Amino acid sequence: MDPYIKRIKDLSKRLDPQVLAEVEEVFVDKHCSKGTFLLKPGQTSTAHLLIRKGIARKYFVHKDREITTEIYFHDDVAVSLDSYIMQKPADVYIEALTDLEVTVIDYRRFYQMKNKYPEVMLIDKMFIEYYAVWFEQKLCEFRTLDASERYAKLMEKEPDIARFLPVTIVASYLNISLETLSRIRSKLT
Amino acid sequence: MDPYIKRIKDLSKRLDPQVLAEVEEVFVDKHCSKGTFLLKPGQTSTAHLLIRKGIARKYFVHKDREITTEIYFHDDVAVSLDSYIMQKPADVYIEALTDLEVTVIDYRRFYQMKNKYPEVMLIDKMFIEYYAVWFEQKLCEFRTLDASERYAKLMEKEPDIARFLPVTIVASYLNISLETLSRIRSKLT
DNA sequence: GCGGTAATTTGATGTAAGTCAAATAATAGC
DNA sequence: GCTATTATTTGACTTACATCAAATTACCGC
Lengths: 189, 189
Fold this sequence. Notes:
The structure is a homodimer of 189-residue chains.
Chain A: H1 3-13, H2 17-24, E1 27-32, E2 37-39, E3 47-53, E4 56-62, E5 65-72, E6 77-78, H3 81-86, E7 93-96, E8 100-106, H4 107-116, H5 118-144, H6 147-157, H7 159-164, H8 167-174, H9 178-188
Antiparallel strand pairs in A: 1-8, 2-7, 3-6, 3-8, 4-5, 4-7
The structure holds a DNA duplex (30 and 30 nucleotides).
């Protein structure tokens, strides 16, 4: 697991038990079946979704083509950052690729927690920080790596994506055509 | 100005005068002459740099090529997010492209302010949020727009960059070769 | 098992944009 | 002013990757 994510987790666990109990009241567990949309363009995001089990993805449609921007596994948090922060309608889909077990963290109630307990605000801030750094890294990868290098990086950093998902989705995540991905893979064997 | 930046500014101004005074003690004004580096790879960032006057840029070197990732004008904040958040050595340069007047915001002292006043922490958090959303948008542009579309977007959103900076820098910011940028421009006239 | 659909691979061809190289144009120093 | 240097433009050529199309393979439901 990423060391920064680990720090966030450790901090969460070390919250005052009283505070932790109160925070956890905000969490609601939910089941989503495969193919369901957790968010659609036009809807304003009202919750973070902690994926407890299964796989989900975020994507948007550009020129009749689905572009996958994030893929979520166990312990990942699915959210349209844009819609959450700016409190405006999303322009992305969040889709359950398998049956999911998710924990819903309602913004309104979590917001109250943040204002009541600065340590909760800190954890939320660290989460955003992680997101920002992750985006910056991705941006750097797009600027410097070609198709096969991006694939190599994916295999190194997020091998589960290549392992569990169909070429179509992996290719759109790497921003290459599925044919090119297929060719890259065949060269490696 | 971006509406979210405006919100951050308004909030800053509306801080309790007592708090504001204390925060401003942390700010130190400084002059940097053209060509100076405010940060170099290997150094760990110890301060945010608010540009009061002049132009600066952030870039990194990849395969003997300078890749400009951010350009700062009046009221922008120059910082290696990565180095700041992870508190690790930076891998980017921050360079004064003109003579600069900057306000240095020391992390250590600002950190104390954040812990003392939750409203200061909130402002810092909003700044990071803005950064994250900005990165996400850039990422989306790289995924969906070709060279001339990226240039068009630049002219629409950050025209000053194209106006005040040499082709070399603008091209590396758009992640295209300077020759291509020159050709795009000549086609538009 | 078999037929039908969807996913993946393979091949042929097109193109946006990179690279290399040379020609202008702009800028600064003296 | 003129030269030296640097920045920008223009041209010829190359290449990584997309697109289109067809072939193969995998995956279902019955």
